[in-house]
Amino acid sequence: MLEAINSFVTSLNGIVWGWGMIILLLGTHIFMTLRTKGIQRRLIQGIKLSVTKDKEAEGEVSQFGALTTALAATIGTGNIIGVGTAVALGGPGAVFWCWLTGVFGIATKYSETLISVKYRVKTKDGRMQGGAMYALERGLNMKWLGVLFAFFGGFASFGIGCATQVNAIATVCSENLGIPAWAVGIIIAILVALVIFGGIKSIAYVCERLVPFMAAFYVLGCLFILVLNADFIIPAIETIVTLAFNPGAAAGGLVGGGIMQAMHFGVARGLFSNESGMGSAPIAAAAAQTRNPVRQAMVSMTGVFWDTVIVCAMTGLVLVSSIMKNPAIDMGAIRDGGVLTTLAFNQIPYIGPFILVIGIITFAFSTILGWSYYGERCVEYFAGRKVLTGYKVLYLLVAIIAPIVSLNLVWLIADTLNAMMAIPNLIAVLLLSPVIVAETKKYINNIDLKDEETVPYLEDIRNKETVAKEELAK
């Protein structure tokens, strides 16, 4: 029975993350880049806005708090092991395609955040709610599709946001620090509980401090390794670009599988890493204090820059240069991204394994926090607030058992649910692209202009729906 389920999920995962999904996502990235007239050129302005406080605007947390909460969930083990997987399966050329998805994905992240903030709502107790589900409901009158998005997102949080991340931490701690896996699960559950029961403000408070530290530590560590690999940096870049378009061998025993293979695994891992088009990060962005939708959208799009254009690119360059410097690493015999990444970092005595261990632990822990909020908002949308305590308890239980169970099936299911999240979210982005263009024109050169529309109360919207249904029934 288990084998049949595993076979079915594997087949389904291959379909939803096949070329159709890659074309849809990458196509949306390019389409929205054109529709927003290259919003990527506003990146520096977005970075400046991300550290600018706007306390007079409506929202629960600062723009920087919302950004770091989204980055906490986005910068995860995919930035380290995921890039290794792309290189192992698609060759060094996959790094180029992974990086390129980040460049174009900035436009999609901007777009999905804009509609998330524009169509957000507020509860009577002051909590901001937003995301693809509200954009579909309020912007397109497609609540049923919003429910599907929330359903997929809620269940995906247990897998990709919790179980797989805790398992990664447990594996690292067990192999490198000698800490029993079961103990790691309990420790992580306690630490997560101390944060998530405080809501978005508590999560944002921790993420504002953790994310900059972990990203800076990892990037500085990678820079140190690249200094040691200095003679191989230029050859590594040349190899990455060359093998992105051509099959064959390169210096250091590196082999490329051709443009199709490099593109497939590079684009897939890039999209998985930065989550542009998946609709997850805009859920956190909707809680931000911002004067207008464009302002927060510009802040949120910088997350893709940090995640993929910087962190993933750094990881890819470290891997390729380390492999070229150490030809003993036989890429032809390695198909596991985690193994390849570990071997590459282990070539740097002391500092390499240390950077890898700290990077995986902090990246994974931050992802657990960020996805707990995504899952909570999704579950509240389709099941109501009454189930939230139960959701958090279940989330913690998953964290406890994750280190001691096999996660192959869990990973496949979560990966599949992520793709299923992307479909309704991309529908919202594409169908609401005229709204995105109009809002951009209105605010892009007047970024401090305050939106005249007040955020509506969720309870008022639901009451109107109830009245409308009763009148229709009569």
TrEMBL record:
Domain of life: Bacteria
Pfam family, one: Na_Ala_symp
Main location: membrane
TM stretches of this protein: 15-34, 144-167, 179-198, 210-234, 240-260, 304-324, 350-373, 393-413, 419-438
One example GO MF annotation: amino acid:sodium symporter activity
Assigned keywords, A-Z: Cell membrane, Membrane, Symport, Transmembrane, Transmembrane helix, Transport
Membrane topology: Multi-pass membrane protein
Entry GO CC: plasma membrane
Gene3D superfamilies, sorted: Amino acid/polyamine transporter I
Keyword check for Transmembrane helix: yes
Subcellular location, record wording: Cell membrane
Family statement drawn from the similarity comment of this UniProt entry: Belongs to the alanine or glycine:cation symporter (AGCS) (TC 2.A.25) family.
Name used for this protein in its record: Na+/alanine symporter
Organism encoding this protein: Megamonas hypermegale
